[in-house]
Amino acid sequence: MKPIDYLRIWLACARYSVVRTMMFRFDFIMWSLVEFFWMAVNILLVAVIYNHTDSIAGWSKYEMLLLVGSSMLVQRFIMGFVWTNLFEMARNIRTGHFDFFLAQPGNPLVMVSTRKLDLDGLVNAVVAVAVIVYALRQLAIVPSLAGVSLYALMIFCGVIIHYSVLLITVSLTFWLGAAQGIEGSYFTLMEFSRLPRQAFKGLTHVIFVWLIPAVVVSNVPADTLIHGFNPLNVLWIVSIALIWLSFAMWVFNRGLRRYASASS
Amino acid sequence: MRTFAKYRHAFLVGLQSNIVYRWNFGIRAIFSLFHLAFVFILWGAAYQGKTEIGGFDLSQTLTYFIVILMMQFFIGAFNEDYQISEDIRNGLINQFLLKPINYYVYRFSVFLAARLVSGLLVLVPLFIALPLIKDHIVIPDELWRLTLGLPAMIMAALIQFTIAYIFGLLTFWFLEIQSFIILSLAIETMLGGQIFPLDLMPAWFFRISQWLPYYYQMYFPTAIFTGRLDEASALSGLGIQAFWVVALLGLAQLLWVRGLRRHTAVGG
Predict the structure, then answer these.
(1) What are the beta bridge partners of residue A56?
(2) Quick check: A195 and B38 CB within 8 A?
(3) Minimal CA–CA distance to A14: which of A152, A115, A159, A158?
(4) A263 pLDDT exceeds 60?
(5) What is the pLDDT of residues A59-68, one digit of tens each?
(6) Angle, to 10 degrees, between the axis of helix B219-226 and the axis of helix B231-262?
(7) Structurally, how many domains does chain B consist of?
């Protein structure tokens, strides 16, 4: 299949997701509220701590808000574009319904990752952008068009990194089978993306800054908006995105070889 | 006595079925240690250059979060709302309507069994992490904290479970309650003091929170044990907590009676 064919399929899936969401409007409103409230909880944590201190690891209140906003933006895109698909992938592997994706005439990874859109996640991406814009105004930062483009590229890399980590955790289902709830571990690990890199010391610095790409996804984009273009930062986040995506695809393909469907 | 025996059996069966899921609880407990690491890093950075925040030093704040974590596994409602919802949706609840069993007490017995298993399991990773966290554990040694903290913990368990029970009963009215549950979880998590100690909020907000049931879920017993509340506040808090236990039990009973009127059992 050509890339244009994948785009057509994705657009058809997106249209179906929008129609489906509009059929269950109450659910859409409730889930949007759920996500919004969790974001508010994270912002409130920042507000409460900064009521008692001026700086966390050298980051001021609005710099921290920018960091949390960037982390939320990446996560909203993940929730909007791929979370439901990968969550259902784990369930489908366990039940044998994964056959459906293998029988389709496209790349299984693309087909499985792009089936549904979650509009509530995407709606709340707007809220995350509002948080970022508010923080920038408080910091009196007006980024140039090039700065915004660079930030967008870094957020895109962040989404790729999160997607890769999520794909790896979900692909473990090929080996673990019955271990339900393994997808939830992604949220635990990605919680660290709301912390400034400078807060990590010793072993935690090695684990969360270098081994697990939790810190890079939010710190590098936020740092770019605050301190401007740094080629090392760009190189860092792009390389991490490529390395983790390659690794995730490798794990997925290895897992695929183990998949034996379910007896019928 | 026979009444007690049937719920004792429910407890024992609950114990067995929850031991089957020990790995799920165990994995969850291990991942909660990551959350504890997040808390240590965040608050460690916030305390840099400061000796106290809100009148408490770093060790007192970290102790608070360690005890909150233990509370979550010993008295927190995990998926009881889903289980009750499934019972109603699948019609399994019909069997309880035909037998001399109180559904609330039955579910509460199973809840106690589940928390005993999950509570003991969280001690394992905490014990492993002890060399790293022991320097930050400071528990006050006043005896009244134990004598008031334990009843506060028991009533907190009742509040936790009853709120989950109430959300489960919403299935009588709504087909899909998952979004309600997660929205409520977000509110409980914040106003229950699981994200930050409630006493760090502005004074007016803290005073309002003291009148809400969420305050008495996790924050109240934890604050008694970890020295964030004095004896007078603990005593008056126990009174308000008892009120919320009664009020929530009353609401649960009301929803149960009204819900059953809407319930339709099909098949034999």
Answers:
(1) A59
(2) yes
(3) A115
(4) no
(5) 999 999 999 9
(6) 160
(7) 1
Contacts of B45 in chain A (CB under 8 A): 56-57, 195-196, 198-199
The domain of B243 spans 2-262
B150 occurs within a structural domain:
yes
Contacts of range A166-169, beta carbons closer than 8 Å, 24 or more positions apart? A166/A78, A166/A82, A166/A83, A166/A86, A167/A86, A167/A109, A167/A113, A167/A248, A167/A249, A167/A251, A167/A252, A168/A247, A168/A248, A168/A251, A168/A252
Predicted TM-score (pTM) above 0.90:
no
Each domain of chain A, given as residue ranges in start order, spans 3-258
**Residues of A in Cβ contact (< 8 Å) with B68:** none
* DSSP per-residue string spanning A71-83: HHHHHHHHIIIII
Q: How far apart are CA A79 and CA A64, in angstroms?
A: 22
The backbone torsions φ and ψ at residue B53, rounded to the nearest 5 degrees and listed phi first, read: -130, 125
Nearest C-alpha neighbor of A78 from the set A155, A20, A169, A171:
A155
**Where in B59-173 does DSSP place strands (E)?**
none
Amino acid in position A95 = T
Is A199 in contact with B183 (Cβ distance < 8 A)?
no
- Residue B268 placed within a domain: no
For the range B230-233, what are the long-range contacts, defined as Cβ-Cβ under 8 Å and sequence gap of 24 or more? Answer: B231/B144, B231/B148
Picking from B223, B209, B75, the residue whose alpha carbon sits closest to that of residue B148 is B223
CA distance B244 to A6: 56
Q: In this predicted structure, what is the pLDDT of residue A264?
A: 47
Q: How far is A227 from chain B (nearest CA, A)?
A: 21
**Lookup result for tokens 């004074």:** B203
| Spatial distance between the Cα atoms of A138 and B1, rounded to a whole number of angstroms | 67
Contact B45 A179 (CB under 8 A): no
A189 interfacial to chain B (CB closer than 8 Å): yes
CB B225 within 8 A of CB A76: no
Residue B7: pLDDT band by 50, 70, 90 thresholds?
Answer: confident
Residue carrying structure tokens 């030093």: B57
Q: Which band of pLDDT confidence, cut at 50, 70 and 90, is reported for residue A178?
A: low
Nearest to A189 among B34, B190, B195 (CB): B34
Residue with tokens 């009127």: B261
Q: Using one digit for the tens of pLDDT, what is the confidence trace for B36-56?
A: 899 999 999 999 988 899 889
B200 touches chain A (CB under 8 A): yes
The answer to whether residue A51 neighbours chain B at the CB level (below 8 Å) is yes
Distance from CA of A259 to the nearest CA of B (A): 23
- DSSP assignments along A40-60, one per residue: HHHHHHHHHHHTT-S-BTTB-
